[in-house]
Amino acid sequence: MAHIRTIRRGGFTIIEMAISLTILGLFAGMLVHSLQRMQGLANASSARSQLQDSSEKALKQIGVDLKRSGFVLQFGVDYPQFFLNGAGPAPHTHPPAQKQAQPGDPDFGPNREIIFLQPADADGNGIPDLDANGNLIWDAREFSYVVITGPDGVNYLERRIDGAQPRMLARNVERIEFEDNNLPPASIPIGCVRVRIFYRKADQNGTMHMHSAESLIRLRNE
């Protein structure tokens, strides 16, 4: 009768070592997969958090501006003015921003940008200037919010004065939309402007994240 001799090396048989290495390999693979999944979740959470934080800050700044502004006829022009994709009156005209959204996407559509006035404050004390009759004096400058594509290919939301002096408020803005009661179906309260901001940002893994936020802002009515 043939005998099978078990070869032991260092207290373990070759079969036991092979089984142990296989189990260790399986655990290592599971660990790597788990770490990759955790890293992916962390990247996604970070991207979403950045977009939420950006939208809160942008809406806060827009709210501060528009609450001080108003629906007024000034210098022969009705304010606020709205225009699509950079096709505004001079000096507010600018190249349209690049778009990633496709028809059917929730963030698909034109940029509806805004031109508005601010109260004059000649002495810079933060209190609007009034004329001899107690009426608000409006600054002769025009302020605007627009979306442009920068040299890096990223879309930026900018606040401008007379089409210049840009100040960046947010990155990765796919679209912005300012609306008042004049647009059908006229669901916005009279005297208010609704602003919606839509974001798109790819995380480190190339996964695209979308976020949107909106605010209803009441303006002065003169």
Condensed summary:
The longest helix has 55 residues, at 14-68. The chain is α+β, with helices and mostly antiparallel strands and 222 residues long. Helix content is 25%, strand content 33%.
Structural notes for this entry:
The protein is of the alpha+beta class and 222 residues long. 25% of the residues lie in helices and 33% in strands. It has one domain. It has one helix at 14-68; strands at residues 8-9, 12-13, 70-74, 77-79, 81-84, 112-116, 143-149, 155-161, 164-171, 173-179, 192-202, 208-218, 220-221. The strands form four sheets. A five-stranded antiparallel sheet has the order 5-6-7-8-9, covered by helices on one side. Strands 4-3-13 form a three-stranded mixed sheet. It is elongated.
